[in-house]
């Protein structure tokens, strides 16, 4: 569970007391729609959002801004239970509204900017850090990532694909691709020696050894799908506190794993229900993407 110090709790409350919720909500949403105009596509029922003027005079923007801020108020008053508090809302944003989770981050950026306009220099780096922590916990709670949401068929798709590949090969190939296609990721591995070309990387024993470690962790995760948070707790701590890995890299690494599975897809004979199809069908990809989202969520726990 995310830990909140007394200072953080006090900081959140002090800032909160200074805010006019309707104003902050309206301004944050207005910025979302103007700065990231593609977000308006989710709000077709709001009528005209095509210009700053239209947005400013749209009563639904104010109304909705207040709804968002009221939910945030609940979070502030229940800091230790944010995940539970947002469960229904995250389900709604995922299943009903189909909101791309990236957008939650955009709205929280807009909220921080609005706080800056309201508080000026009172928004010291410490206050900013505390509020960014609050919003990142809220965003994590809004992202619909729960192993309960994996249907039996989806679980089967994940274990079945994994049983048809050589996991060590997948891990090795994914790590090689990580270093070649996303070369900035090499900076975390200065102890691995030269990673200067594809041939050198492919031959580097430490790369192979490390791939095996990562893949063992993933295999364990597949075996333990309902308990990911606990099994990744130490790894999350290690990557956050000691290795200082930017969590964006987890997404890239797991995308590489998925990409390589997809490459192998044609040669894998996957016999699952008709609903999921065979080979690496879009449905099987969707099941894997959900699983990867769970792994990312668990690995990123300590970052919140
Ligand atoms: C609805 C909260 C981010 C799209 C709602 C509702 C709340 C809420 C409380 C009303 C739910 C209900 O009436 O049952 C939040 C919070 C957010 C957030 C706290 C982030 C901090 C976003 C983002 C988008 C989005 C980023 C899309 C870009 C929607 C839509 C609705 C909705 C389309 C339904 C609006 C309607 O037709 O009334 N949200 N939301 N939300 N949200 Fe979010
Ligand atoms: C170490 C898992 C992604 C950087 C490790 C270890 C495991 C692991 C099991 C070994 C821990 C130990 O020896 O106790 C994973 C998993 C990932 C992942 C499951 C899934 C996405 C990443 C990414 C980076 C990274 C994307 C950086 C771009 C490191 C570094 C070490 C490490 C630098 C220490 C390596 C060493 O010096 O031996 N990781 N990792 N990890 N990881 Fe990750």
In short:
By secondary structure, this protein is an all-alpha fold. Helices cover 67% and strands 0% of the residues.
Overall geometry:
globular
Gross CATH architecture of the largest domain:
Orthogonal Bundle
Number of strands: 0
Q: Give the cofactors and ligands.
A: protoporphyrin IX containing FE
Average pLDDT for all residues: 89
Order of helices and strands: HHHHHHHHHHHHHHHH
Largest sheet: none
Organism: Latimeria chalumnae
InterPro entries: Globin, Globin-like_sf, Globin/Proto, Hemoglobin_b, Hemoglobin_oxygen_transport
Domain Globin: 3-147, 149-304
Keywords: Heme, Iron, Metal-binding, Oxygen transport, Transport
Q: Which descriptors apply to this entry?
A:
heme binding, Globin-like, globular, 16 helices, transport, binds protoporphyrin IX containing FE, Globin/Proto, heme, mainly alpha
Write the layout of secondary structure elements.
Elements lengths: L5 H12 L3 H15 L16 H5 L2 H19 L4 H4 L1 H10 L5 H18 L5 H18 L9 H13 L2 H15 L16 H6 L1 H19 L4 H4 L1 H10 L5 H18 L16 H18 L5
This protein binds protoporphyrin IX containing FE (2 copies).
Protein name: Hemoglobin subunit epsilon 1
Organism: Latimeria chalumnae (Coelacanth)
Keywords: Heme, Iron, Metal-binding, Oxygen transport, Transport
């Amino acid at each position: 569970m995310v830990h909140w110090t007394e200072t953080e709790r006090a900081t959140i409350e002090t800032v909160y007391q200074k805010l006019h919720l309707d104003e902050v909500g309206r301004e944050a949403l207005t910025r979302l729609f103007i700065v990231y105009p593609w977000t308006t596509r989710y709000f077709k029922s709001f009528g005209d959002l095509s210009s700053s003027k239209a947005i400013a005079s749209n009563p639904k923007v104010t109304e909705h801004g207040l709804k968002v801020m009221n939910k945030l108020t609940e979070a502030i008053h229940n800091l230790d239970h944010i995940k539970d508090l947002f469960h229904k809302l995250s389900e709604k944003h995922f299943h009903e509204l189909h909101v791309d989770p990236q957008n939650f981050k955009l709205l929280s950026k807009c909220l921080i900017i609005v706080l800056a306009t309201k508080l000026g220099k009172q928004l010291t780096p410490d206050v900013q850090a505390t509020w960014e922590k609050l919003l990142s916990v809220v965003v994590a709670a809004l992202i619909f990532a729960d192993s309960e949401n994996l249907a039996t068929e989806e679980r089967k798709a994940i274990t079945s694909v994994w049983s048809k590949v050589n996991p060590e090969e997948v891990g090795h190939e994914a790590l090689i691709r990580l270093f070649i296609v996303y070369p900035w990721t090499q900076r975390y591995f200065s102890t691995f020696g030269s990673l200067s070309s594809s041939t050198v990387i492919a031959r580097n024993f430490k790369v192979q050894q490390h791939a095996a470690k990562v893949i063992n962790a993933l295999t364990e995760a597949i075996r333990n799908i309902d308990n990911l948070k606990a099994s990744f707790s130490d790894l999350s701590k290690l990557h956050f506190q000691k290795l200082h890995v930017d969590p964006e890299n987890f997404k890239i690494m797991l995308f590489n794993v998925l990409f390589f599975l997809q490459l192998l897809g044609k040669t894998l004979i996957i016999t699952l229900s008709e609903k999921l199809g065979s080979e690496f069908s879009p449905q099987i990809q969707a099941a894997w993407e959900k699983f990867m989202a769970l792994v990312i969520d668990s690995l990123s726990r300590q970052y919140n």
